[in-house]
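[09:14] KT: can someone run the structure on this one? pasting the chain below
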Amino acid sequence: MNGILGRLFRGETTFNFVGRRWWGFGVSIAFVVVTFISLFAQGLNLGIDFKGGVAWEVPATTITVEDVRAILDGNEIPTADAKIQVLNGADGKHIRAQVGEISTETRAIVQAALSAKAGVELQEVSVASVSSSWGRSITEKAVRALLIFFVIVSLYIAWRFEWKMAVAAILAMMHDVLISVGVYSTFGFSVTPATVIAFLTILGFSLYDTIVVFDKVHENTTRYSASKVSYGDIINVSMNKVLMRSINTSIAAVLPVLSLLVLGSWVMGAIALQEFALALLIGLLLGTYSSIFVATPLLAVFKDRERKYRSLQGTLRLGEEMARLAAPSKKAATRPLGDAQNVGSTQVDIERETIMASSALSHPPRPRKNRRR
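[09:31] RB: done, structure tokens below
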């Protein structure tokens, strides 16, 4: 394969990510602005677990969604904010109706009306009541876990690489969570505990993809430390080398989530899977995008201001020049696999030991003593 796919597979592409970084920044800024507008204008569609309320679930034998809505209207329960869904389960179809907090007497009346309309026993109509304090507790714990996660990740990246990489990675993860929340707000998707768990899960994937790129950048920074190479060139070479790996990782992660979303929720009617899988799908796509177009370009902006790279800022090798820069040197090609920094010292030690061994074996023979006769 000699086309674009073949070069992508072999890590031989020469895309100018750094030179076009403001395109990625522009798209991200636009999404963030839309997110804030949506959050201030309409907020989030919080589920019953967060704002409190009552949910009935009735077998959909002879009852329809319109019948359920009519029963709620007949008991003076506002249906504008009511959530009525048809669920497909192993034991057949069910209809779930969720409303805000109402009195205990009204709950019983609605339960009896649903039972009569569906032609089932009263105990077959389940009623669940959730207090809004439980949702607040879940939210506080999720925010606390998120902050602790950010602190631990920042310390690790700063220790393993450097603090500027830690800042770029944290900003990219905040970008992913914020825009994911914005998507839920803009399209009115319901936010449930499963959604919160999915938001926390996508942070791990976003961080993993970013660390893969940062590790290659760190390796190439050491490789070109003695050369007059701009940090933008190091970023471009590194990202082109790991681009195919990022794409493969994303595809491998998205396919199972799509199966959850399509088979689990749309075919089998598992609404809980839909809430979880939808948040995961949005987060996975954003995590891949941010690692390429947000985290690493941000690192380039931070590093270009260092004294070592300031004079080379804006100097980028493109096309064939980038390909020649990324090509392994002949000297490196003859080295054994391992740490590039330790190869030279190891070879010197081996040569020194060889000389010492040969000198020890080539010393003149000791004179023989005369034997007494």
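[09:33] KT: thanks! The CA atoms of residues 17 and 236 lie 6 Å apart.
[09:34] RB: yep, looked fine to me
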